[in-house]
Design goal:
It is a single chain. With 363 residues, the protein is α/β, with parallel strands linked by helices. The chain is built from twelve helices and ten strands. The protein has one domain: Aldolase class I (TIM Barrel, Alpha-Beta Barrel). The chain has a ten-stranded mixed β-sheet with strand order 1-2-3-4-5-6-7-8-9-10. Strand 4, helix 6 and strand 5 form a beta-alpha-beta unit. It binds iron/sulfur cluster. Iron/sulfur cluster binds next to loops.
Length: 363
C-alpha cells in the first residue's frame, strides 16, 4: 500500500536535476574546490554528473570515490590490449543476441529491452559507453513487443538502457501496460541508477505506475559505494519499496573506488539499512578506455574473501563475471574456482568455469 509518508518528490524535481547536471569537467572541478587540476579530455564519452550526486562528493578531495566515477581521466585515452568496445559481444552478429532493434536475449527465459539511450549520469567505467544506440531506437519498440508476444519461453523482461527510469512516467506506464498484455511475461526487472544518482526521480506517479503493474516488479539499483547512500536515497528507496517492488543492488568492483574490504562491507550494510539486498558484485568488463578501473579475478576473489569473513550470508552479493556466449553469469567465489582447478569430466563445456579463449567480462 502506498501511504503519504515517506514523501515522494514533485514530478518536475528530477527533470530539473537532469537539466542542471554538470557537463563540463572544468566547471565540476571548480565547484568542488579543485580548479588547480587540469581537466582531461572526454575521450569520446560526454561527462554528465547530476547535482544531487555531486553534493555527495567530498569538497577538495581529488581521489573521492564518487568523483572518480564521473570525472574524465587522462588514462581514458590510453589503449590496452584486450580492452574492446563491446566486451560482452552484445552487438556481435555471430552471437545472435539481438532479437529485434532494442531487444537483446542472452539467457534462456529472459530478454533485455534497451528502452532509451540516455542516462542521468555517465559512469566512466560503463560497459555500454560504446554501444550503438542509434541502431536501437525507442521508436522501434513495437518490433520488440511483437517478438516478445511470439516467444512464450520468455517470462521475464529486463528494462535497461541507458536508464529506463529516464522515460517519462506516461511512457513507462504505456510500456508496462503493453507488457502486461503478454500473458507469459511474469516479471519485469528494471535496472536503474536513478534512485541513487537522482533520488528525486521517485515520484508518486512512478510509485503508482509500478504498484499497478500486474507483473511482479523487481528494481535492481546500481550503487558502488556507501557514500552514495544518504537520506535522500533512503527516502527514494522507501518509496520504491512501498510500490511493492523487490529491491536489489548490483555493483561493479572498480580500482580506486571500492576495491577495499571496508568500503564493500559498509556498502552492503548501508544498502540493507535502506531496504535493499546486495545482489551482484561484478568483476569489471574489459571495456576500451576503462583499463584504469580494472580489477583482476585474483584481487576480486581476495576482496570477496574479506567480505565473506565479515558479513552474514544475506548481505553478501554474488561475485560474478559475464562471458559472452555463456548460458549464465560465472560465479567467481573461491569455491567455484576450486571447481575450475578440477572440473568433472562430464561437465558440459558451456558450464565449465575455466577461462574462455577470448574473455569478455561483466554483467
Ligand atoms: S547509469 Fe548504467 S548505463 Fe548509464 S552510464 Fe552508468 S553504468 Fe552506464
Amino acid at each position: 500500500m502506498i501511504t503519504s509518508n515517506p514523501t515522494p518528490w514533485q514530478p518536475d524535481a528530477w527533470q530539473n536535476q537532469v537539466r542542471s547536471a554538470f557537463r563540463n569537467p572544468g566547471d565540476l572541478l571548480e565547484h568542488l574546490g579543485l580548479k588547480h587540476l587540469t581537466p582531461a579530455g572526454l575521450a569520446g564519452f560526454p561527462m554528465l554528473a547530476p547535482r544531487s550526486f555531486v553534493e555527495r562528493i567530498v569538497h577538495g578531495d581529488p581521489q573521492d570515490a564518487l568523483l572518480l566515477q564521473v570525472l574524465p581521466q587522462l588514462q581514458e585515452t590510453e589503449e590496452h590490449a584486450g580492452f574492446v568496445r563491446d566486451p560482452l559481444g552484445e552487438t556481435n552478429s555471430d552471437q545472435a543476441f539481438i532479437k529485434s532493434p532494442g531487444l537483446i536475449q542472452k539467457y534462456q527465459g529472459r530478454a533485455l529491452m534497451i528502452t532509451t539511450p540516455a542516462c542521468a549520469i555517465n559512469c566512466r567505467y560503463c560497459f555500454r559507453r560504446h554501444f550503438p544506440y542509434q541502431q536501437h531506437r525507442p521508436r522501434d519498440r513495437d518490433l520488440a513487443l511483437a517478438f516478445l508476444r511470439r516467444d512464450a519461453s520468455i517470462s521475464e523482461i529486463i528494462l535497461s538502457g541507458g536508464d529506463p527510469l529516464l522515460m517519462q512516467d506516461s511512457e513507462l506506464a504505456l510500456l508496462l501496460a503493453s507488457l502486461a498484455q503478454i500473458e507469459h511475461i511474469k516479471r519485469i526487472r528494471i535496472h536503474t541508477r536513478l534512485p541513487i544518482v537522482v533520488p528525486q526521480r521517485i515520484t508518486f506517479e512512478l510509485m503508482q505506475t509500478l504498484a499497478e503493474s500486474p507483473a511482479k516488479v523487481v528494481v535492481v539499483i546500481h550503487s558502488n559505494h556507501h557514500q552514495e547512500l544518504n537520506a535522500e536515497t533512503k527516502n527514494a528507496l522507501d518509496c520504491l519499496g512501498q510500490s511493492g517492488a523487490t529491491l536489489l543492488n548490483q555493483s561493479v568492483l572498480l580500482r580506486g573506488i571500492n576495491d577495499n574490504v571496508n568500503d564493500l562491507v559498509l556498502l552492503s550494510e548501508r544498502l540493507f539499512e535502506q531496504g535493499v539486498l546486495p545482489y551482484y558484485l561484478h568483476l569489471p568488463d574489459k571495456v576500451a578506455n576503462t583499463a584504469h578501473f580494472y580489477v583482476d579475478t585474483d584481487r576480486g576473489q581476495a576482496l570477496y574473501g574479506g567480505m565473506k569473513s565479515r558479513l552474514p550470508g544475506y548481505l553478501l552479493p554474488r561475485l560474478v563475471r559475464e562471458v559472452a556466449g555463456d548460458i549464465a553469469k560465472r560465479e567467481m567465489s573461491t569455491e567455484d574456482l576450486a571447481l575450475v582447478a578440477d572440473p568433472p569430466a562430464n561437465l558440459p563445456q558451456a558450464l565449465a568455469l575455466t577461462p574462455a579463449p577470448a574473455p569478455h567480462p561483466d554483467r
